[in-house]
Design brief:
278 residues; alpha/beta; 4-stranded antiparallel sheet; Alpha-Beta Plaits; Rossmann fold; homotetramer
C-alpha cells in the first residue's frame, strides 16, 4: 500500500471534483483526508487529498493528467523526509527550537546543514552532529557573499526548503529567484506593520499593545512575500523594546516551526502573493 | 437559480465523494463550497456542500437518496431565516448582543419571542418590538414551570433553535428531549472546568489565570452537551470573582453569538456528544 | 467617607512615593489600590492610587500640591458618571454594544447624545431615549460640517469624552485640538498596519492570517494617536474581505468598549504619543 | 551600587507603603520598579520593589524589620543565578526548551543536573555538558524510588527550584513537603479540567474546542497546587488526541518556561493556594 498527497490547483470549472473523485474511485484508492477551496473572486480551485491504495506513483500522476484539463497543476507527493538548509546569524532561539524538534523526531526533515555569516552558533549546532558552515560577509559585497552561499548550496542536490531562522541579511533578487517559494523566513513583527529593521523598537516607539511574528515565503520585496503563519502576544507600557524582543522570541520560534511543519507536510499553496493552507 | 446547503453524514465507505460529486456534475450544479471530514476512529464521514443550479428541492433530495446507500443521512436546506426562541433570566449582555445583531440584519433568524422567569428584561426586549413573555417559576415545581413554557412554545410551529442566553435554571430531561440538538446554551466557564453554579467564584477560588465561556447543545447531563464554541481571556490575581464575571461577559456574549451563527448557517454536525463544524 | 482617584505624573525623582504615601498616611487615608510605573528611558513617573477617608476634595488636592515639586501633574477625581457624546456613521455594532452596556448599568457614563452624518441609526438610538442628531455633510465642506457639529456640542458643557463608534469621516486639526486626548476612536485594523480606508480590503489583499482592531485617542495624524487597546482574531484563506469585516466587528466593539471603560475609570495616562494604563 | 529585590507580604494595615517608601528614601535608595496588591477579601498586602543604592544586604534587611510590624514577611534578594534541578521522563520538548534558553543565556539559573526514571534523554542532556542521572523506578516502590532521588538531591546544597519538565510520576507527600513551593510542574491540560492521566485523551473525548497547559507549584493534591501560568490553543474536530498532544507541546513548553522565568526573577507570592505575580 502506498500513500500519496495529491495537490491540485486550477482555474475553477464544473466537474473537477467529480473527475478527481471518480478517478480515485476507479483506481480503488482510499481518501484519508480531503480539502477543497474555491477562491470565487479569482475563480481558482485548490484541492489537497491524501489517499492510499495499490497504485504506482507514475500511474496515479499520469491518470490524473489524462482526466483533467491541460492547464491544471497536479502534484503527487510521497510522504518522506524533505531536505532543508537552515540559515542563521547570531540568535539561538529559532534555530534551537528546530534542532530540538528535529532531535525529537517531530520534523519530517533532514537538516543538511546550517549556514551562518557568523560562527556564534557553531557550538550549538555541532552538538547535534549537523554540519555548520560559516560564510562571513566581511569584506564582501552582497553578491560576492551570496555567491559563496550558493556555492555551498550547490553541494546539495534536492534542497526542498531554505529556512531563515533569524538570518539578518536581505537576500538579493538573484538569490531569491533560484529558490522561489522555497525560502521560509521569520519576520519579528506582525506584518505588514513594522517592515524592515528592528521592528521591536518600531513597535515600542509606536506604543502598541500587541506584538507579533510572521512567517512568510521570501520574494523580492522586503518582508512582502506570501504569509504562512502569524501569531501575537499582548504587551503593555511596562515593556521596553528589549522586553518586547525577549517575549517576542517565544512567538517567533513557534510561528517559524509551525510554518515549516506546514511546508514539510505539503499543506501550502502559493498564489497571488498569498497562501491557501489545508 | 436556487441555492442549497447539502449536509451528508454516513458510515465511511469508498465512493461517497465520487457518487455525490458525480450527481452534482450530472445535475449541472455549481459547487460554491465543499467541506469533508472523516473521523477515522469511528469510521464516520461528514460533508457539507453549498451548491446552486436549476434544480428543484425535491429533485435534489430524491436524487441524492437514490445514488447513496440507505443508511446515509441527507439534509438539503434552502438558506432562509430560521425561527428562534430566546430564554433568559436577568442578565442583559448575551440577550442584548443577539438583539443588536438581529436589528443590524446580521442574523439569519426571526426572533419569535423572548421568555423569562423574571420580567427584568421586558423593557429592553420591548424596545425592539419582540414579544416578551414572563413565566415566573415562583410557587411552581420544575415540571409545572416547564409545562407553562412548553405551552407558550406550542403556540409557535417550526421552532428551529431555542437559545439560552443566560437562562439560569436547569431544564428537565422531559423538556430537553423535545428539542434534541436544538437548545443552545452559554455556560459561563471553560467547560469541563467549573460545571454547575457560579463558575466565576469557583475559578477565583482555584486561582486560575485564564477564564472562558462555552457554548454547547443541551442534553440531559448538566453542562455535558456537545460543545460548539469556546473562548477565553487572561486574568490575574487582581481580579476578584466579580471582576472575572464582568470581564467574562464579553466572552460569553461573543461565544454564544458565534455558536448561534454556526447553527443558523447549518454548519454543525452533532455525533458522539461532539460537534463537527464546517 | 469619600473615595478619590489620585493620578500623578512627573519627572522621576527620589522620594515621590515617600512624599505621597506619607501624606496619605498623615491624612489617615486608606489606600484601596496603588499602581506605579517609571519609564526609565524618559525618566517619567506615573502613579494612580484609589484612596478613601474623611477628607474634602480641595484639602486633598491642595495638600498634594504642597508636598510635591512644582512641575508635577496632580489630578484628584471623585468617581462619578462621566458625560460622553457618541459619533457614528451607519454601522450599528459598536454603537449597539455601548448602548446595551449603558442600559445594563455597566458604564460609568451618561450618553448626552449620538451625532451622525446619516440618519440610519436614529431608530436604534431612539429606542433607548437618547437624543440623536443628524448633521449631514452633504453639500458642506469639511469645516462647515464640523462647525455644525461643534455648535451641537457647545450645547453640552462638561463633555468628558467623544467616542467615535465607527464615525467614518476624518476630523480636521481644528476640531481635534478642542478635544485633545478626549476623542476615542476605533480603527478597524491592527494599527499601524493598514492605516486609512478599508483596512479589511487591504488585509485581505495582503493575505494576512490575523486581523485586529485598535482603539486610540485621536490626534492630528490619521490613525496615529496614542493606542489604548488592541485585539486580534485569526483568519484564513477562506475569508473574503467581507468575511473579515464581519468577524472584525466582534473585535471592534469589544476593543472600543474596553478602551472607553479604561477612560471612564481614569486609568489612562497619555504621554509621548503612548498610553500608560493601570 | 547594589541592586535588591524586596518582597514584602503582610496583613494589610494603614501605613505600610509609607513606612517602606520612607525607609527607601532615608537610605537614599532608588526605586527601579514597584508593584503592590491588596487582596481586600483576605486583607493581605503584597509588595515587590526593585531598588538600588549604596547599602549592604544586612543593613537593608534589618532596617526593614525595624520599621515594619512583627508579623510581616520580608525577603531581600540579590539578583543572581538560582540553582535548579530538572526532572523528566521521556518527552523532549519541555526539557529541550529549557536547555536552549539556558544555552542562550536567557535563564537566570544554573542547571545542577537532570534526573530521570529513564535514560532516553541522556543523549540530549549530555550534549550540553549537564549531568544526567537515571534513577529507574523499576522494581522499587514509590518511596524507595523517591529516597534514591532524595539521595541524589542531597548532594546539592541550595537547590532553589525543582522543575518537573514532563516528569510523569506522582510525587509522595513526603517528597513534596521537603520542597514546599519549590517544585514547578507543567500539567498538560487547562486545569482544573482534565486532572490526572492522559488529559489530551480526556479532552478529545469531551470534544473541546480549546486545549491548554498549566504550570503550577506542586502540593499534595494531584494537580491542585497554586497556578503560576496557563495558556491555550484552539483545536477543532479534525484533531485526534495525538494531534492535540502534538500541538499541546508548543503550549506546554512555553508555559513551563514562562513560569520558571517568573520564579527565577522572584516575581511570585504564594498564598491561599494561589499566586500573586508581579
Amino acid at each position: 500500500m502506498a500513500q500519496y498527497r495529491v495537490l491540485i490547483d486550477a482555474n475553477d470549472e464544473k466537474g473537477l471534483v467529480h473527475k478527481i473523485s471518480t478517478l480515485f474511485y476507479n483506481k480503488d484508492l482510499n481518501i484519508l483526508s480531503n480539502n477543497e477551496f474555491v477562491d470565487r473572486e479569482n475563480n481558482k480551485f485548490f484541492m489537497r487529498s491524501v489517499v492510499d491504495g495499490e497504485i504506482e506513483y507514475l500511474d496515479l500522476k499520469e491518470s490524473l493528467s489524462k482526466v483533467l484539463p491541460n492547464n491544471v497543476n497536479i502534484e503527487v507527493i510521497k510522504p518522506q523526509k524533505k531536505n532543508i538548509i537552515i540559515m542563521v546569524t547570531k540568535e539561538m532561539h529559532a534555530l534551537g527550537d528546530i534542532l530540538i524538534r528535529h532531535e525529537a523526531g517531530e520534523l519530517e526533515a533532514n537538516i543538511l546543514c546550517v549556514i551562518s555569516n557568523y560562527s556564534d552558533l557553531k557550538s550549538l549546532v555541532s552538538k547535534f552532529d549537523i554540519p555548520f558552515v560559516t560564510i562571513s560577509h566581511v569584506g564582501l559585497d552582497r553578491v560576492e557573499h551570496e555567491n559563496k552561499i550558493l556555492d555551498c548550496l550547490s553541494r546539495y542536490k534536492d534542497i526542498d526548503y531554505i529556512v531563515l531562522a533569524k538570518y539578518m541579511r536581505i537576500l538579493t533578487p538573484g538569490f531569491v529567484e533560484q529558490y522561489e517559494d522555497k525560502i521560509i523566513n521569520i519576520h519579528h513583527s506582525f506584518l505588514p506593520a513594522f517592515i524592515g529593521a528592528n521592528p521591536y523598537k518600531q513597535a515600542f516607539d509606536r506604543g502598541v499593545k500587541i506584538i507579533g511574528a510572521t512567517s512568510h515565503f521570501v520574494n523580492n520585496n522586503l518582508d512582502e512575500g506570501p504569509i504562512i503563519a502569524q501569531e501575537v502576544i499582548h504587551v503593555d507600557h511596562a515593556y521596553g523594546w528589549r522586553d518586547m524582543q525577549r517575549s517576542g522570541r517565544n512567538v517567533e520560534k513557534i510561528v517559524l516551526s509551525s510554518a515549516l511543519k506546514l511546508a514539510l507536510e505539503d499543506r501550502i499553496f502559493v498564489y497571488a502573493n498569498k497562501t491557501v493552507i489545508f
